[in-house]
Amino acid sequence: MVILRKVFRKANAVRKLVVTERIADDETILFVLYFTDFSADRKDALKITTQYAYSKNRMEKLVEGLLEKT
């Protein structure tokens, strides 16, 4: 389930953050964060970052860090 989705635009760049929450058991990672950064002006136009968190507290810290990039 998607619990957070934010899209940012700056000049020719588009950045998107998506956080999903999965049904957790002892072996499942609860939160998955996807951060995409697209800029047609760059040599590598698309950059994708995936991060994982077992707790809500850790997920919030990862989101905070990724949003600082915007």
What can you see in these coordinates?
This protein has a four-stranded antiparallel beta sheet with strand order 1-2-3-4, covered by helices on one side. It is 17% helix and 50% strand. The chain is built from one helix and four strands, in the order ββββα. The protein has a single domain, classed as Nuclear Transport Factor 2, Chain: A. The chain is of the alpha+beta class and 70 residues long. 9% of the residues are buried.
CATH topology: Nuclear Transport Factor 2, Chain: A
What is the CATH level 1 assignment?
A: Alpha Beta
Report on the biggest sheet: 4 strands, antiparallel
Count of DSSP H/I helices: 1
Brief summary of the model shown:
The protein has 70 residues and is an alpha+beta fold. Helices cover 17% and strands 50% of the residues.
